[in-house]
Sequence to fold (383 residues):
Amino acid sequence: MLQILAVENYRSIQRLELSLGRLTVVTGGNGSGKSSLYRTLRLLADTAQRGVVAGIAREGGLESCFWAGSHDQSALGSGGSPARMRLGFAGEDFSYAMTLGMPSPSPGESNRFRETFFAQDPEIKHEIIWAGPVYRPASVLVERKGPSVRIRTDSGWRSLTQELAPFYSLFDTGGAVDSPEIGAVRELIRDWRFYDHFRTDAASPARQPQLGTRTPVLSASGSDLAAALQTIREIGDPQALDLAIDDAFPGSRMEVIREGGLFTLSLHQTGLFRPLTASEFSDGTLRYLLLVAALLTPRPPGLMVLNEPENSLHPDLLPALARLIINACTRSQVWIVSHSELLVRALREAKELVSFELEKSDGRTQIKGKGGLLDGPLWRWPA
Fold:
């Protein structure tokens, strides 16, 4: 389980460290920094998929991602803007932190920078893996500085490579054979699962008949919804599935229809003489079924992140959704970003709930009611 998420110099977040629980809920007004905090998890996940540089490019490039407020001079580069952005997390067994910055040519490299089209691509400057949740120099297991990666062995430090490209993470070295810690942290990050902004419009893939194969993990698009629900019925928890449907739509029964290899959904509801097909579902009904498929997965992830799951849902459905989420956090660590006071209030029934309300002060994202240096968790950035 992740214990701490740490961010520095990213958009509205100058510096923030959060203690996480089995169920973590983040709330706050529009523009308070909830989406920025969510994106930091996505960027950390991208490190294990060779996509962190592309992920930053999709956000407008590193310079547009830097903290944009006032700074103390220690956070500034020579050009008057933050020189580095840092992301990290602490886990029970292993922790990880990375530093990103703009390219800075070494002596003799000026020609290379003039010739390349990619001189504005961000670079991974520093990465580090250490044992346990608290950073100490003696607990460091793997360290990357620029192109060099070294690993700690029983006899001391050993170089893994001196030629790692700045757009690749240390997880791309193939060093898992020599360093089980690289492989363990890489697989931990790859196991994170994100769901946000499911399409529920008339052309949504979840409404269309789709080729069905056994689907223990719902795709991010939700296009394989019918197959995912049928997989839960066959190899997951069919009783929990039926209860989730009845909890939201009392007396209703969901059925997966197969025609020539194509799967589609139908919902039998009390008082209707025929079942409704997926093309007829309301946006809220379809979104609820998508969340059911995600949360009742037969292959629970280490971390599941839901961004504003209450969108399109009628308030009457939120208590049922909260019960689904609370059930899911017995099998996975769950992170929720929400605007809904009703959903958050229902989630307070969870024993391991940790909740944060974000606010902005002088353009800086902060946790409401916590502003002192001693209010945060025990986190130290590697030097």
